[in-house]
Amino acid sequence: MRINTNVASLTAQESAVNVGKNLSSSLEKLSTGLRINKASDDASGMAIADKLRTQASSVGQGIANANSANTFIQIADKAMGEQSNILDIVKTKLMQASTSTTSSDGRTAILNDIKALLTQFDAISSSTNYNGTTLLQGADFDFQIGEDSTNDKITVTTSYAARTESITGAGGSLNVIANLSDITAGSALTAMTVVDNALTNLNTVRSEFGSGQNQIESALRNMMTTRTNLKAAESIIRDVDYAAESANFNKQNIIAQAGTYAISQANAIQQNVLRLLQ
Prior knowledge:
single chain; mainly alpha; rod-shaped
């Protein structure tokens, strides 16, 4: 029997160290909620999970961009809705001016009201903006909702600027009415045709914005589903299964206690050698 080197104790200590590391790792997972806390926990799994997280972040920004684009278009649509109301009122006043029961002074008052309304029409066009970008001046608007510069870009092209000089049709633009010095029953009827054409053109611009909004909302629904699936996939790889890890922690804890007992017994065995010296 040898007492200089307690091999049994050394073996038990080595096992205790390894079990301690396992116990510490298990406790770390339970405390953070993550199965992968460092690359050594699962190198390939961490690489995949990080890529999924980056992709989910990009999709999340795409969702934010789409929501901003929706707000952008809604502001434009509400403004054009008010412009449409103005043109409805203008047409009603022109009808009033076109009848013989309206006096000359009445038509003058009506014309002044119409000019004030058309001034407001242009004021809406000039002041409607989103974060400093004017919306009703006639332009192409690009909304980037993904990483691909081609397939993930939605472009809204407006055919007209929603202004009196730009909304044109048979009979000219709305400026024809705004520049009138007086109005008669006949010119009021002619002006009604101009207003009808202007409403058609304004509705064309609204429909272009509306079509773009439908695209954006469709893309938004798809991105929300995609982000949920990406987050779920990352969770499967990165997050800890508490039921399984709790069982593992209890297992390692019991082994650690047994290891401590084994070390004490290995040391106790050495004491038996002393009996040979008595």
